[in-house]
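User: Can you predict the 3D structure for this chain?
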Amino acid sequence: MNEEIRSFVVDKLKVMVFPDRESLGKAAGRNVTAKMIDLLKKKKELFMVFASAPSQDEFLAELSQRPGIDWERVVAFHLDEYVDLPSEAPQNFGYFLRIRLFDKVHPGKVYYINGMAEDLEVECKRYSSLLKDHPFDIACVGIGENGHLAFNDPPVADFDDPLSVKVVELDPISREQQVHDKTFPDIEDVPRKAITLTIPTVFSAGFIYCMVPASTKAEAVKKTLKEPISTSCPATILRRHKNAVLFLDKDSAKLIR
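Assistant: Here is the predicted structure, written as structure tokens:
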């Protein structure tokens, strides 16, 4: 079964619910592929940013094998990166995307955040400069258990952030999520800092596709769709975007009536 169970709109945000995470991933892959092909008919290059988390596995698997995409004309970025985690560590977000997508489809260019940089502020400025020259056409994102977008946790999220990239202290809930996702064995192993794209940077994308499976995200999904738009649940800002789609499975949507 690959068809959606239901769809609806909250403010401007389109929400689609699927039977399971596999059908969610396939549908998201089809939707993103169609948009990429359409935009590449009008543009010489396509600028995209991707999230790195187990919640994206099915989507990335589908996208990596979809036909018809001229990946040589795609310039890729990623949303965030741990500080002081080597680039070949399995939990490194750049490594995650290399293995699951970039090494399979070979984009024309991939720009990685260097979480091992000696001067993190200089690294933030370097990546900010790249983003200024490559405004996002498409953002492929997820939502954290605390409602974060990228690593914009509630304590550091700012809808009017003057920065496009910044260093953040990770919220304990975000660090615990990495243990829930089985990417780290224990919370003490999870880095305490990360470099992240800010909310305005993500929101600036022409199109946003947000993939959120699993019951562990049900409370965050409920807050995203039901609570007032505020940084107490950063993902609520998606309800203001004119071209955003939220993909859920029945587990992540179980608290939505």
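The longest strand covers residues 13-18. Residues 6-228 form a domain with the Rossmann fold fold (CATH 3.40.50.1360).
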